[in-house]
């Protein structure tokens, strides 16, 4: 069994690339030091290895069952939940005054990386709970916090987000779940929600659903959407669960991957008795949900990165261990076969995986670093940059993580596609990530249609500044000349084309420009991750004395691969966008 | 439920592109006419729709079980087998004198296309049986034919190919299964084989394994390999099954897809009593197996193409039916949502699928057409071209078919990754195809290291001649100017680089050149399929009067997509090969 993550890589990213220790200069994190961070990470890794990893395949093979009355999950999931909850990680990022660990986002993200690599399906329960709790924390009333937040932080209650409806999908403005004021401050909800992860389970005493619904008489579209707390069991003021709320599990959905996480269809108010509590102001539901959603999107990116990472390490271990074939030059059939990692094509598939997954992990940790700078460091610019990058952090790992898993299978050959080896499950698990929490198409529209131009394009300016700093530093290293030159020459068309696309969006070419939005999303991902690869090598060379030589060379080779093989694809795409390629727009549905 | 294949497309390919009727000029096919072909195709489609499609998902959900003594498959598989056998398709290609249908390969391939789209896992049993029977037909003794061939053609016995061993994988020269002469003309075999598809089942009375083994004292390497017929049950001279042979099922492997096909580990000779019969001459086993293997490789290509095709049609039907969202320009939330096929990004994902799967089907039918020209038409050139193209026919659909299935899932969004919809299974089924019967890596080495240079490079010359004929004809159509110009300008670097690679292989750069063989394989696939796209549009324009206008426009738009988006990727790869990119070769295993 390969390790969950390359420990040297994770430590390098935290310490040498994202300067974890520097975070302790922020007053909020002043109590921490490097040792304390390490101790938290060790705890997370130990729980992931001991209580999440061992049942990863079992939870996949024995997915949750629904007998019409009750959902049953394998008992290991509850045990894992309990250990996670006991560690305090459910409220890791919250303040000491709230019983939290006041942990930086960067360290919290690194902890989550272990769980995502070990068992993404079981990890989904605590991660969704943390995200839902954060919304109540940010927008709920004091009474709501008292009643729901403490039991969520302690692990008694789990949380979900209930947005999607069967006929509506991602077009949230069309959702029809209704809420009627009951006169006592509460509401009665009626409607159906679908694809609700963790929407029912037998792990926790209660489940807190955050439901988007439309208050009677609210306007159509997104402005009429409000958010409600809808507990599975009603809760009295002392926090005790009293009786069942009118929330019914209509059925489970059977997924390709993440099988251990229930995916549910929920009926609210079949008996007209579904009690819900309005969160914050009416009509602001979607903006509240986006706090959770943005966090969830980064979480999806991390999941995709780590499932990809696990597949990489498993296929790497296999390739080093498996003898088969001989070198091209060796024609002696009596000679001993070599390990398949000696074959150039296997090296290709491993190097490509490395470039994708280590780049993706770096991207997710960058997002966490920006959260810290923004929140604890009170740096507005970091918040703007994070906003710009969120669709990329969601999408790049979701696109290239599965590609990595595909290559991992290919490295193993026949062993790759049988369930007797772990990479098969990685491939299935990761296939959900390009879809849930917003498809590439949606992320592309968000990026090209909105995020790039917010704050007068400041996000992009900030990104380019950071890139220039990296290029400037990297230019000093002779080993990096080729890498820097390739990136630098590719950067110009990226900038000019982006500006041109912005102008086209203002004119009457908006529709044609946005038609290629998901292509632009892919381009942006390659430039951002390409930058991070240069940043990584530059820091690896700088810190070479405490890193292994192989590690430094590996980073350098992956960066070379990225600039020679990945970036040119982005340049090719840019040419198409610059030429306003209309192949897809001009395709009539009847032609298909 | 979408159709298995676009009927207009299949008929167009058979009639307008590959001139099925012209085959009736060959004496062997003189009894056929267009109507007779249609009648055979209708029968195949009806059996596929009635007896294969309905249990496709069920056989996936209820995979074969092994209780330690016996394998159980769901009963529908046996029924499907029986209907297939009764139709005569098991010996479709064989002569009337042998009870066959004397059907052209082109029509046989088109029949198979229905089965592969309907249920690739169940279709594997008859397809493997036909392939094994063909080997016995070609190389077996008269006595062997009498004893084994008739029951295989009639459906009493199934067939398998047993090559791979646990410690050997694709490196067949290292296989260790032993055969000892028994004195009575038969042999006793001993060894273990793995990943044997259909290696055990409860569908047929008996199973005929074609086993590669090494006769005691044979040289090491591939020259010491012989082929043996090893029946599961021993068969007397009257063709009756008498007693069990010493072939034991050690276990089933649990695959990601094709779950309905058993994948087995077989132990031969645990009791030292495994009877086998030498096929043909000793030491020629591998060359015999390659007859079957080449056929199986084209079959894998077809399977990949048709699983991709089915996913395309399913996602197309969903996209036309599913309302969600509005056009970019429409900001009125009260307006009705449009079908998602109206969104440019969905059109992109559908057009891309169309380009991959219709191109892949055309490629497989081309291979069949070459078989007919070669065998019935006695045209040696066609055989040489088929030989060159076989790795491409195996690999292009295996690479791009799964890509199409990935896009099909993406079109469906959340519905795409749940087993309640069919595209999820397509994606899993298709993931086997880039591996079994030789990975891309192996196909790449076969193409660049061998096939290109056989017969003094005649295969490539023949290919280029055909391409030039197409380009010449297409240049007359004004609609095709852009498409032809793009292809033409891309063709030059393909030719020059290929020649350069050939020279490099002769010198001391062989290892470095072959290091990028799988990249070259991808390039070649794009050029060949790109050519077929031009051929298709040219023929569609020519036959526009009996085709729907939408069909012709669709072909044209897919060809435009191919030249604008796919071919440039191949040109980019060519530049890397021309520059002798050594990124992968130069990567040290320790860096990974």
Automatic annotation (TrEMBL), chains A, B:
Source organism, top-level taxon: Bacteria
InterPro entries the record matches: Acyl-CoA_dh-like_C_dom, Acyl-CoA_Oxase/DH_mid-dom, Acyl-CoA_Oxase/DH_mid-dom_sf, AcylCo_DH-like_C, AcylCo_DH/oxidase_C, AcylCoA_DH/ox_N, AcylCoA_DH/ox_N_sf, AcylCoA_DH/oxidase_NM_dom_sf
Gene3D superfamilies xrefs: Acyl-CoA dehydrogenase/oxidase, N-terminal domain (1.10.540.10), Butyryl-CoA Dehydrogenase, subunit A, domain 2 (2.40.110.10), Butyryl-CoA Dehydrogenase, subunit A, domain 3 (1.20.140.10)
Taxonomic classification: Bacteria, Pseudomonadati, Pseudomonadota, Gammaproteobacteria, Alteromonadales
Official protein name in the record: Acyl-CoA dehydrogenase
Boundaries of every Acetyl-CoA dehydrogenase-like C-terminal domain copy: 465-587
Keyword field contains Hydrolase: no
Cofactor: FAD
Residue span, Acyl-CoA oxidase/dehydrogenase middle domain: 161-268
Organism of derivation: Aliidiomarina iranensis
